[in-house]
Amino acid sequence: MRRKLALALFLVLALGAAGVARAQDDTYFRRPHTIVVYADLGIAMTAAPGSFRDAWNTTLPFTLGLGYAPFAWLEVSGSFSYFSFGNNALESKRQIGYQGVQSVRGGGITTLQFLGRTRFIGIPNQRFNPFLEAGLGYFTTSAEELEIENVLVRSMDSVSGPSVSLGAGAQYALNDNWSAYTRFAWTINRNADFAPSNLVRPVGAPEVEGEGNQQYSAIVVGIMIRL
After folding, report:
1. Strand intervals (E) in the chain
2. What domain range includes position 33?
């Protein structure tokens, strides 16, 4: 349901931008540029493995990036993204099998992502532009201890490794230098040792060595300046 709502929001934003673009002249000659600086905010939804999807909430990630445009149809950049997935206390207590009234503390999962991105611009020199984007880089994911007061404390080993992201979106030139954009992306952080279920394992259950790659989707809106 969360992914469907996010995708619907993305389509509304993209179609709205397309409608504005059709009202403009067919061609919009941007000033030639080489440097790209951008920042975006959005919503990221947990996807896999199952315990991560079910027992952690959506988050509001942010990204900062700096890039270079060798051609009008191509932008390459480096970016830093921060994700902080809060723990779903009710679902965590259900998975642990604890029905008491004590509160759940901690258990948040934080992911730092460093990507090299390549963005392929669909229609260069137009005011409205669809694009495809691919990213490859590195991630590190860690977790706070999860505690049910006076009952138990759980922890998860940190993981790191290669990160892959694929996305699509649309951007709209506000003027010669500034553009706004929206983007939907799917990310896979490749390390099979990721084991969030260790934070919510039932009393007496053994620790899990790994559950598979961390995966999440995100829909963002951002602002870009071309220099």
Report:
1. 35-48, 62-71, 74-85, 104-106, 109-121, 128-143, 146-148, 152-154, 159-173, 178-189, 214-226
2. 2-226
Distance from CA of residue 187 to its chain's centroid?
7
Q: 211, 59, 191, 196: which is closest to 138 by C-alpha?
A: 191
Hey, what amino acid is at 172?
A: Y
What CATH number does residue 69 fall under?
2.40.160.20
**What is the value of pTM for the model shown?**
0.86
Q: Can you read off the two tokens belonging to residue 67?
A: 């890039």
Nearest 5°: the CA angle 179, 184, 190 is: 125
Residues 142-171: tens digit of each pLDDT: 999 999 887 889 999 999 999 999 999 999
Helix (H, G, I), strand (E, B) or coil at 78: strand
